[in-house]
Amino acid sequence: MTAPLLTINDMSIIFTSPDEPDIEAVRQVDLTLTPGKTLALVGESGCGKSVTARAVLRLLDRNADIRTGEILFEGEGGKVDIARLKPDSDAMRAIRGAQVSMIFQEPMSSLSPVHTIGDQIDEIIILHERLTPRQARERTIALLDQVGVPGARERANAYPFELSGGLRQRAMIAMALACTPKLLIADEPTTALDVTTQAQILDLLRQLQDDYGMAMLFITHDLGVVAEIADEIAVMYLGDVVEQGDVFDVFRAPRHPYTQALMNSVPRLQRKAERERLSPIKGNVPSPKDRPQGCAFTSRCPFAFEPCADTRPARTSLPGDHVARCHLLTRTRAEAMA
Amino acid sequence: MSTLLTVENLSKVYTLGGGLFGPARELVALNDVGFTLEAGETLAIVGESGCGKTTLGRCIIKAQPVTHGHVYYHPKDQAKVELTALGKRDIKPWRRDIRMIFQDPMSSLNPNMRVFDIVAEPLRIHRVARGKELEERVLDTLAKVGIAPDAVGRYPHAFSGGQRQRIGIARALVLDPRLVIADEAVSALDVSIQAQVLNLLDDLKSEFGLTYIFISHDLGVVNYIADRVLVMYLGHVVENAPTEMLFERPRHPYTEMLLEALPIADPTRRKGRSKELKGEIPYLGNRPRGCPFHTRCKYAQDICRSEKPALRSINGSAQMAACHFAETLDLKGAYESSIGGGDRPLPLEGRAGEGVVL
After folding, report:
1. Within-domain flag for B26
2. Going by C-beta distance under 8 Å and a sequence separation of 6 or more, which residues neighbour residue A46?
């Protein structure tokens, strides 16, 4: 087994506000990223998946505080704890965009509309690798070519609005790869795209991962995309990672009631005769300030019993490479009720 | 079953430019679209962005004027009416029977109106009810979609995305329509909420005897909800078939491509797909000659580049496709080959108590 590239241990992120109580957006999260592997972070809006990813790059808003935990990164200059770096320090800047880079959901709003894509990619290369503009441009063209932008030399002079959604996303991927990162964070990179374009981009990411051997943290709400691209999966609900493990294990036998419910909410491709009515999760995701002390899923869980609301279930190891947080995994209902 | 709606040779052309900046150009958003809709069925319209699916929905209720063609509506006890021939004033009564639900529940509800007034507005505009009766109908409809009566005085911002979509549905249903056009009605919702709304639409359909036109790009959802599917590409209908036939064995290469691209929530069915998919949807302004799909089609022959195939029934079945080789191509469907399907996750109870606390 390869050594981990990034290890997040017991990380909690708290949002403060002058006139409201603090909100713990991410609670004691543990994640491990390995070179050449993809970890998918899954959950519904507001579950803290983007916050977790942005914490790795220290791109959080000012009122967010990584209160506890560590983010250990095996960087070029040895092991660093990203959680202890200042967001605007030189050390962090050397990591961000070079060793760890990110692609975003909406390429139109995350690329500069007034610079050509070539100039935007050149800038990163010049900044991190100190090449001359001419050398940087050659590298940019090679990158654009590699991510499948046809006519890369001419397209480098195009502005984002001149490109289709798929090409824009490819340009953004080229930008993220400009300094051959060790870790690529992809935040819903295909959500805004058509299915056929999505399939092409997923293929591209898979192929680039093979070529570069980078680790990938892939954020999505689409279980179909997870099944397609991930090696490991971590399911988040209201700031908790409720279940994580090998993607085949988790899809075959999800152990947390939330993961099970999520999987039952997706219509399956079945013939009419076999079709079952969807069984949605009842109710809505509560607001973070109404989250119970114990398991965050208590209010919507069909199996909830006495300890759930008050005692937070511990991380429980299951057979195989599989971890979940649920009281039912450590005791039976009869035991708990006694 | 009786016919509810007939669409014949519908075309919509937008004219671009034509001023200081050079000659006008034509953009054909809908090209000779035709289909019939039976009462009680759910017809899904699918395709990539820019294929004309939304334009088609809007042309049916004449939210946009059409360039050529006819849309006939068949009212319950009357002769059919041609919606496309009616003026603004004359079409209004029929808009009570045909209602729309929009994609983004955030921007389709007026933020300055209370939920009660949002749902009451169609009743007031069409002068269907007033006073006590109006109040009853509004509260009744809201209750049916699951909005509590004590919440009706609030503004849309106080509701979650799923609840807002329910309000949009209530607004469509309050006039007791026969046909509901849902344009990407569940696309903006989280999966667990999406499942709730899909079930709600299903329940309301049987309760009110509705017919749906369900515009969507999500083929998983379409397979779940639709009886029949209309696949559109660059403004053309390329396939029109009962859902199961289409997913079992598509007859148009574009349909196959869409099914191929669909991610399936099962890692054991993962497949390398790179070679199957190529290209992007061409810009509508420079549409290819011949078959609109030939630039991306891996089966394309010379005839495809010169001659446009007609939409026709395949071997006399209910499945229609517009491909020169529809009868002979053996295209791949989306269902698992063996009947029986995958196993659902087991309930948790039986396996309790097996874990070890870390």
Report:
1. yes
2. A238, A285, A288
Residue at B260: amino acid letter: E
Is A198 at the interface with chain B, CB within 8 A? yes
B48 to chain A: closest CA residue: A194
Q: By residue range, what is the domain housing residue B123? A: 106-176
Please count the CA atoms within 13 angstroms of the CA of B231 that sit on its side-chain side.
28
Interface pTM, i.e. ipTM: 0.86
Chain A residue whose CA is closest to B51: A194
Does residue B200 form part of some domain? no
| b/e per residue B266-295 (b: at least 16 CB within 10 A) | bbeeeeebeebbeebbbebeebeebbbbbb
Which residue in the block uniquely carries the two structure tokens 């299915």?
A: A195
Query: Quick one: CA dihedral B217, B220, B225, B230, positive or negative?
Result: positive
Question: Quick check: A292 pLDDT over 60?
Answer: yes
Q: A11-15, A329-333, B96-100: lowest mean pLDDT where?
A: A329-333
B188-220: pLDDT as tens digits: 888 888 999 999 999 999 999 999 999 998 999
| Window 118-177 of A, Cβ < 8 Å to B | 164-167
Instruction: Residue B259: name the closest of B215, B317, B220 by CA.
Output: B220
CATH number for the domain including B120? 1.20.1580.10
Of B264, B346, B355, the CB nearest to A318: B355
Contacts of B163 in chain A (CB under 8 A): 284
Q: Following DSSP, what letter does each residue of B236-266 receive, concatenated?
A: EEEEEEEHHHHHHS-SSHHHHHHHHH---S-
Are A194 and B193 inside 8 Å of each other by CB?
A: no
- CB interface of A with B, residues 209-228, below 8 Å: 221-228
Question: pLDDT, tens digit, for every residue of B111-128?
Answer: 999 999 999 999 999 999
- The dotted CATH code for A6-230 is 3.40.50.300
**Which of A45, A147, A191, A195 should be substituted to probe chain B, the one whose Cβ sees the most B Cβ atoms within 10 Å?**
A195
pLDDT over 60 at A60, yes or no: yes
Give chain A positions within 8 Å (CB) of B356.
Answer: 316-318, 330
